[in-house]
Please model this.
Amino acid sequence: MSEPLPPALMRVALQRIAEWREQPFEPVLCPVCEAEGLLIADQSARPYAEWYALTCLACGLNATINVPLGPPVPGSDSA
Model:
């Protein structure tokens, strides 16, 4: 199991995930070593949480990031 990312790197990691979601076929920089080629796997369990596995072959980063989501709103179309 990997160590949690420090808060400063967690913010960068979340920014990189957002970039990846916007342009999934573009290379992403590692939040730790800034090497190109961060691997991101979406392992989310929506609508409850987003989970992303981050792997960097350059520095050995192996982290899982959880982004809790709010509960589903009764009567909404997002189910």
